[in-house]
Every structure is written in structure tokens, then in C-alpha cells.
């Protein structure tokens, strides 16, 4: 082992889990150095007392502090949660937080909030929701983060990656209008955002009518994205509920000059401009990931729509009668998308479409889907085609035809049926294989489905 190159030893060590890496540290000096670098490349800090103590020990040990590349600040792990308490920025945690940026080789920061949230009008109302982190707490954390990141210290200026998991869909003006916020975003190369939305456990179908998701998505291009367009090379945008159509996310006025990697999670396709927007980055884009991103082939809106077919009253639907314009179909199919991507993105080297491990996204841990985008298995699931029916619940997004929903006519007797689901499995799979072959990406056989790219059911 002593004769192996240090770089090779480090690469081997990074493939091990923490337990094996810790064991490897006692093998010999050369291996110990590689294992130590791997073991302490990512460090976590939470408000829990044990976490703070461990963090301070690492940062006070030069041989360990020099190994740290990424720090995850996880506010969702607090000692008082065990007793049903609320989040608190203790003096001890604040002091440790401000030392995060003392690591000399730090290149990335992940901020991880609790997955549950309530909007400003509902705070304190839904006690059963176990929302430990209110908006004021989240805002204080964000302000502290951007304040520390906007620092002339050389170590801080080397931070080029920012990931925020469970960012609540509310833009506080104190954050997005702050000079630190804009300065930091202009310096980033990688930005990863996982947006969390408030749930309505009693009536989940009502959550889409809350004002926050619509306001946040309307502001996203001019707040979080506008200051990154000239410098960003990697963008990952996920949401714990579907975005794109309702709430509408319009990226047409946002163009990234150097974007190499793009990932969407829970993003719906309903208009041709969305694919054209992706293809407009053809001169730079090398990686494209679509995680649970369906084409909405049929749309039923129980209210007026605008000239493009988007809901005219996305927050306060009047449930008006159908007028012909609010029932429409999107004719594009995935095989057409794959063909366009193959011909329109000449620099593409990796493409993944499928469904990440969203089921792992249970309180209080974030889902693996967001973290493991780059290793998501390529597969064509049935719900790559879905329909939007504003009159159903618990979700308006469905992959079931009207005729298969027994209560459909009972509650909406005047509603037209959803159009039939597209039957183009063979065409989709053939076009996807052609795309993967054209970029030199191997098709890895699945234990259950073999070489087929078609999947059954849902992830």
C-alpha cells in the first residue's frame, strides 16, 4: 500500500463509507493520510451540543481542518426538538457558525433546514404540523450565512458552491435585497436549491392555492438566479411539489452564459418554450438531469386561463365553468424531446431521466433524490406523462385517466374527461437509446428490468 500513488489512495478512500474510512486510518501512515482526507472532507455542524463540540474539535486541529472541503450546516438537528421545542440560534451555535469559514480549503457550503414549514399567515396555527423552524428563524440563518460569505478573506472567496435544502418558498426582503446576498451569488459557480412548500394535511389539494409558491416562483428568476447568470456553471433546482405550470416558473428572460450542468426535480413541461430554453444553452451545456419531470399531456383548469394556457387566477380559482380555452392538450412527446436534445445539445456528455429516491424525504431528513442526482438510474416511468386536473385531490397532478377515477363524475359531472395517456413507449425508449448512444453513455442493465429502459409503477 505504501507504494501506491497518493492520488490513487485518496480516490480509493473517497469511495468508502465513513466507518470503513475510519478503520483505514489505522492501517499505515500513507493510507491513514488518504483516509483522513476523505473522512474529514465533509463536516457537519448542527445546533446540537455534541455536533458543536465535534465541529470545534475539528476546526481546532490543523491537520483535520486542512482536509475540510465542504461544511453542511444542518439547523434541523436540535436537542430541544425531542421535547417538541422550536428552533433557536443559541450563542454557542452562532459562535461555531461564524467559525465555519476558517477552514483554509473550504470550497462549498450546504445549508439544511427542516423539511416542514408554514407560511407567514399560518404560523402558530397548525401546531400539529411540527414546524420547528418559523420564518423568522430561517431568515436569521440566511442573513447570518450571507453575511459570513461576503467576506474579503481569501478562504471565503474560494467558496464557489452553495446548496440550500428545504429553502422555504418565501423571499424575505431583508435577504434578497441585501448587498451580501447579491455579492455572494455573483461569485458562485454551483447553486443548488431544494424548495420546500407548506402542506395542508387536512386537504392537500388546497396547498397549491396558497399564495407563497406562486409569488416565490415568479420572483425566483429575478432574485436567486439573476445575479448568477454570468458566472454559474452548475444549477440544480428541485421542489418538493410540482413546479413549472402551477405554480408557473418562467425562465425565458434568464440566460446563463457558462452553464455546463442543469438539473430539475419535480419540474413539469407544458410549453415548447421550456425545451427551447434548455437548448438555448447549447454552446456550454454538458450535463442534463430530469428527475421526476413529467410532460403534462392534458390540462383541465376550472377557471380562466391566460393567452398561453396558464391559470389566470392561480391563487383564488373561481371554479368557473369550462369555456373551451381552459381544457387543452400538450402534444409534445418524450421521443420528440430526446431527438431535439440529441441534435440541439452538441456538447452534451451525460443525460439522465428517471426518478430519484424521493421516498427517502421524510422528516427530519432530506431526500436522497436531491443529493444523488448525478447517479440517478436512467429509466422511463409511466408517470413521465401526467395530466393536470384542477378539480381533484389530494393532488391535481395525476397519471390516471378520468374513467379510472370512480368518484370523478360524482363530484365533477360537467367536467370533460382527460385525454388518453400517450401510448408511445417503444418510440420513447428507442429515441432515448439513440440519445445515450450519441453521447457515449452506456445503458446499465437493471436487476429487475434487464436492459429495458421502461419501468413499471412509480419509484
From TrEMBL:
Q: Where is the composition biased (Basic and acidic residues)?
A: 402-412
Q: Domain named F-box: which ranges?
A: 1-43
Where are the stretches annotated Disordered?
391-430
Q: Which Pfam families match?
A: F-box
Question: What's the protein called, per UniProt?
Answer: F-box domain-containing protein
Q: Which organism is it from?
A: Coniosporium apollinis
